[in-house]
Amino acid sequence: MSAGDRSLLTRAAALDEADPLAWCADAFVPAGEGAQVVRAYLDGNSLGRPLRATAARLEHVVAHDWGTRLIRSWDEQWMDLPTRLGDRIGRVLLGAAPGQTVVADSTTVLLYKLVRAAMSAAPAGRTRIVLDSENFPTDRYVVAGIAAELGLELDWLHPDPAAGVRPEEVAAVVDERTALVVLSQVAYKSAWLADLPAITQIAHDAGALVLWDLCHSAGVVAADLDANQVDLAVGCSYKFLNGGPGAPAFAYVARRHLEAGMRQPIQGWMGHAQPFVMGPEHVPAPGIRSFISGTPAILGMAGIADTVDLAERAGLAAIRAKSVALTEFTIEAYDDVLAPRGVRLGTVREADRRGSHVSLGHDRFRQVVATLWGEHIVPDFREPDAIRLGLAPLSTRYTEAALAVTRIAELLDAS
Ligand SMILES: Cc1ncc(COP(=O)(O)O)c(C=O)c1O
Ligand SMILES: Nc1c(O)cccc1C(=O)C[C@H](N)C(=O)O
Description:
- The chain contains 15 helices and 13 strands.
- It has helices at 3-18, 22-25, 52-66, 72-78, 81-94, 107-121, 137-150, 167-171, 196-205, 255-259, 298-301, 304-314, 316-338, 365-374, 398-414; strands at residues 40-41, 101-104, 128-132, 153-157, 178-184, 209-213, 232-235, 249-253, 344-345, 357-361, 377-378, 380-382, 386-390.
- Helix 6 (107-121) packs parallel to helix 7, helix 13 (316-338) runs parallel beside helix 15 and helix 14 crosses helix 15.
- The longest helix is centred in the last third of the chain and has 23 residues, at 316-338.
């Protein structure tokens, strides 16, 4: 290890020492022990780490709510869990007043439901959807599938892959034929933080609605959905919300659309006004509850509330400040030791246009990541040549980022 690498680790240790959110990392289940201990986890933007409180909560749910109260728990607490938890996510993380957020399904399924809902509400003549080629595959596949199903047209944006969609690119395509604009607030590859207020306003000025995918921003960046007059949003809970693998997603539908009778396409019994009447016809439940279709995933929801509690104690502004500081530190470390070794930076340098990961490119990264995983240093690899360093402000330490960057440099030197 060179003197430069040592000073990187020393600087990181000092930042950890001074970190006002350092106490949050202790709330997580230790990642292994002995020879198996994870030395650096940098994939919290793909699968967040579990909280200790969640391990205890799951045990309680199994032994008490499920094991002892059994079917009675539906009446006692499970039936409104999707909207109760949705309201908490909305209040603490999304800037959404109660009654507009629900937890259900996967992001993919909620995207389908919300895009179809928006299209059912679109005035005649508005038959075009705007989306971008850099969005996560599921968003592109779902929208393209709906376009084929309903005979709609797509307006594809092709943003700079190392950045993301800019307001002027949206302004150039929306017009009186646009029904909906579907974008991610933080791009899954580059971490580009879209200008949500400006783009939402541009879509509205053209008479279109906007659906924001918040998968990579929920829990780390404010969306202020109500204040920004957002129409629709989805997001997943197993990244920065640490809900666990396959934990259900959330959907937001602005009150004005619920009051106007916006309807989703999968009218199952759990979104019925009176599910247990089991009548001949579907009568939608009032409000956001009508966006539920089948039985809610109660076990999958158990962990989400623990992160919302922790985030409320930490405060979203402090979480965002740490996220910015972590990405800033990682980019400085990149400048020091990786840029000289030919690594490309795939994330913007402007902190206010950046989410909570740093994307790096090198044609030897597939092999580098395989070696890192074997050493219990865990970033992720995205085709064709990218390492993403996911920096989850509640759980990631500066020393984890420093260790990953240092080892990447050493592995590039060794091969
Ligand atoms: C932006 C974005 N949208 C959607 C998804 C996936 O959704 P799902 O929970 O349905 O797998 C992900 C990640 O998996 C994502 O990064
Ligand atoms: N959802 C995932 C999964 O089920 C398996 C592995 C990874 C994921 C992810 O979340 C990928 C992630 N959305 C991404 O940005 O690449």
